[in-house]
Amino acid sequence: METLRLVLLLVHVLGFAALLGGLLVQVREPHKVVNPPMRDGAGTAFLAGLLLVGVLEAGDTDVDHAKIGVKFGIGLVILVLVMVNMRKPRIPQGLYLGLLVLTVANIAVAIFWSPVHT
Fold first, then answer.
1. Transmembrane residues, as ranges (predicted)?
2. How far apart are CA 8 and CA 61, in angstroms?
């Protein structure tokens, strides 16, 4: 079970890396688009995250449902925004910045909202 958890965690991190990379590669471009790494990364990170929670719930690990809820909500918003704007020839600068902020926020929640060990 631990191996499955680690594999899913790796896939989840790689999904967010693809999403963030797809966003950052466009920083200097005048016109932003939803590119394939953003689409694939958002979907991969979201699905791997759901599977990871399932594995954690099935194991002996205590799951922080508040953290999972926040990550789920942010991830779902990212996924919907990416999928809705996938076929558009360009996206507004505000949407691009919103996706970037949400992606970094979701990564920050994963890193900084750690379980309290007493």
1. 6-25, 37-56, 68-84, 96-116
2. 15
DSSP string spanning 25-38? TTTT-SSB---HHH
For residue 100 the two structure tokens come to 């970037």
32, β-bridge pairs? 91
User: What is the secondary structure of 99-112 as a DSSP string?
Assistant: HHHHHHHHHHHHHH
d(CA 56, CA 60): 7
Surface-to-core class of residue 40, CB atoms within 10 Å of its CB (0-12 exposed, 13-18 middle, 19+ buried): middle
Q: Is residue 103 classed exposed, middle or buried when 0-12, 13-18 and 19+ CB atoms within 10 A define those classes? A: buried
**In the structure encoding, which two tokens stand for residue 47, read together?**
């699905």
Map out the domains of the chain as residue ranges. Answer: 2-112
How does pLDDT run across 58-86, given as a tens digit for each residue? 988 888 999 999 999 999 999 999 999 99
Distance from C-alpha of 45 to C-alpha of 1, rounded to nearest angstrom: 20
pTM for the full model? 0.91
